[in-house]
Specification:
This protein has 3 helices and 5 strands. It is α+β, with helices and mostly antiparallel strands. The relative contact order is 0.23.
Length: 120
């Protein structure tokens, strides 16, 4: 399987268990790996034969701007489902980092993987 990766995608959303954390947008960082449904783009050199990463980032930013989340896990699930449903990805691995939320802690977050790795 071929994999597109998007590293350190910075997005804003409202995220946190305490209500005060969800009042203002905060930065989170996403590391995304997306399995391609086929390797056709390797032969065609045509964007229509792959997943357009600019469209993926746009949709993620749109989703996260419109919603508020309590749990990092739930946010991660929503992003994975968006990528698989709207872009036809058979597999997604996502790392969500919430930087600087606690003193002395660089970041907290979650890594989830959804779908199945398939051979092209």
């Amino acid at each position: 399987m071929d994999i597109i990766f998007l590293s350190e995608v910075k997005v804003k959303t409202r995220l946190g268990v305490p209500e005060w954390e969800r009042i203002l947008n905060q930065n989170i960082i996403l590391d995304i790996e997306i399995g391609l449904p086929s390797s056709k783009s390797c032969q065609s050199d045509d964007i229509k034969d792959t997943i357009n990463y600019a469209d993926v980032v746009f949709r993620i930013r749109e989703l996260l701007a419109k919603n508020s989340f309590q749990l990092v896990e739930y946010l991660a699930e929503q992003v994975c489902q968006l990528i698989m449903t709207e872009f036809g990805a058979p597999w997604v691995r996502l790392k969500v980092s919430k930087p600087g939320i606690l003193p002395g802690l660089k970041a907290l977050g979650v890594i989830i993987e959804r779908g199945e790795i398939v051979s092209s």
